[in-house]
Amino acid sequence: MSVPANVPILTSEAMRAAEAACAASGVSLSELMDRAGAAIADIAWRMAAGSPILILCGPGNNGGDGYVAARLLAERGAEVRVAALADPATELARAARALWTGAVEPLDRDLAPAALIVDALFGVGLSRPLPYELIENLQSLAGRRVLAVDVPSGVASDGVRDWSPPLPADVTVALGALKPAHVLLPTAPHCGQVLLARIGIDAGGTMRTLPSVSSTKPDVAAHKFSRGMVLVRAGPMPGAAGLASAAALRAGAGYVVLSGSDHAPFSAIIAEDGAGYADRLGDARIGAVIVGPGYPVSDALDDDVMAALDAGKPLVLDAAAIAAALPRLHQLDGAVPAILTPHEGEFARAFPGLSGSKIDRALAAAAFAQAVVVYKGADTIIAAPDGRVVAAWPGSPWLATAGTGDVLAGACGAMLARGGDAFDAAVAAVGWHIARAARIGPGLVADDLVADDLVRECND
C-alpha cells in the first residue's frame, strides 16, 4: 500500500468543481474522459503483460472511462472484454460506449473472469451500499488482479466508510487528484498501490499527501540557539518527557532543557529541578515548549499548561495537556503558535461530538483550537486552522507501540523551535518520525527512534 508524495487530494465535491472549472476553461469533459481512459489503458497494459483483461463498466462516467480504455487496449492488440452493470446513463458514457466495437457482456454470476479485472463501475459517484447481488457477482472475481478506477467499488470516495465487502484493488489509478478514500481508514487498505493520472485538471487546493522527507542542514553560521531551544516539561512519568527531549535533540534542536526530571537521556540535555520552570519560561531564547508527555490529568498539569500559555511561547501539547489547554487556546485565537498531537482517544476527549471523515474532524478541531492538529494513527492527518491538510498514509505499523507519540511530540518541538510556520513544522516532524520508523522496522521500540546506532546509519 502506497500513495505518491506531495500530490493533491480532492473530495468528490471538490473534484466535480475542478472538472467544471476545467470545462469552463475550454477543455471539454469528453477530452478529460479520453485522457482518463488513456491513463487507465496504459496501466492495465503494463499490469496485464499480455494476459486477458476484463473491464467492468458502470452506467456513469466512470464506466465511460472504462469503455475508452477498452477501445484503446483493443487497438494495441490486447485481449480485452467488457462487462456492463447497466446501459450508460450519461451523455459522455453513451458516446464512449458507441465507440467500443466489441461485445458487452452482462455483469452477472456467470461472468467468466480474466487475469486482470479493471473496476470502472462507480468511482467517486458511489453514494450508497452495493446491492447484495452485485456483491456476490464481484466476489466471484476474487483472486484476480484488480485495477480500480478512482476508487474500488464499495468504497466511499470521501473516506468516511466502506460498504463491505468492497472489491479490493491491487492498484488504484486516481484521476486528476487523490481522494480522501486513498489516505484514510477504513478505506485506504482496499485501494492497494495508488497511482496518480494527471489528466489536465487543476487540482490545486489545500489538501495534499505527505511530502518526501528531506534532510535540512543547518546554515553554515548556525549555533546551538539559532537551531532552536526546546523546553520539555516533565510530569509524574518522566520517561515520556525524556523520550520527547531526546527526540527534540535528534530532530535538530540545538539546545534542550528537561524541566522537572533529575535524569536526562543524553548528557547534552540539561535536566533541571521543576521549581525553575517558571523562570525558564521567561528565557527569550526558548523557541518551543512541550507539555503533556507522561503527564496525567491533574491540577499541576493545568498550572503548567497555563504558565506556558501565559508565557506566549510556541507550544507542543500532547495527551492530557490538549484538553487542559483548549479553552484558553480557543480564547487566544491563534495568538500562541501551537501544535496538538492527540491519538484517537485523546482526540475524542478533547473534541467530542465531531462528525465526518477524519479529515473533516481534524479540520474542525484545528479551527476551534486555532492550532495545528496532528491527529495521530495509521492514517495520520495534519490540519491547520486555515484549512491546509496533509495526509500521512501509509505511516509505519511499527510505530504502534508505547512511547512513539512522545518521540513525535519532541520532533514537533524541534521543528517548531526553528521558527516559521507551525503547520510546516508539524509536517516535517511527522515525515521525520515515519522515516526513522521505516529504517528500524520489526522490533521497534520508542527508544530506538532516538538511538545512536540509528543516527550513524542515517549518516552512512
From TrEMBL:
It is an enzyme of class 5 (isomerase). One of its GO terms (molecular function) is metal ion binding. Gene3D superfamilies: 3.40.1190.20, YjeF N-terminal domain. K(+) binds at N62, D119, S153. (6S)-NADPHX binds at N61, N62, G63, G64, D65, G123, V124, G125, L126, S127, R128, P129, D150. Binds 1 potassium ion per subunit. The keyword ATP-binding applies. Residues 15-207 form the YjeF N-terminal domain. Residues 207-460 form the YjeF C-terminal domain. InterPro entries: CARKD, Nnr, Ribokinase-like, YjeF_N_dom, YjeF_N_dom_sf. Keywords: ATP-binding, Isomerase, Lyase, Metal-binding, Multifunctional enzyme, NAD, NADP, Nucleotide-binding, Potassium. Its cofactor is K(+). Bifunctional enzyme that catalyzes the epimerization of the S- and R-forms of NAD(P)HX and the dehydration of the S-form of NAD(P)HX at the expense of ADP, which is converted to AMP. This allows the repair of both epimers of NAD(P)HX, a damaged form of NAD(P)H that is a result of enzymatic or heat-dependent hydration. Catalyzes the epimerization of the S- and R-forms of NAD(P)HX, a damaged form of NAD(P)H that is a result of enzymatic or heat-dependent hydration. This is a prerequisite for the S-specific NAD(P)H-hydrate dehydratase to allow the repair of both epimers of NAD(P)HX. HAMAP family: NADHX_epimerase. In the C-terminal section; belongs to the NnrD/CARKD family. In the N-terminal section; belongs to the NnrE/AIBP family. This is NAD(P)H-hydrate epimerase.
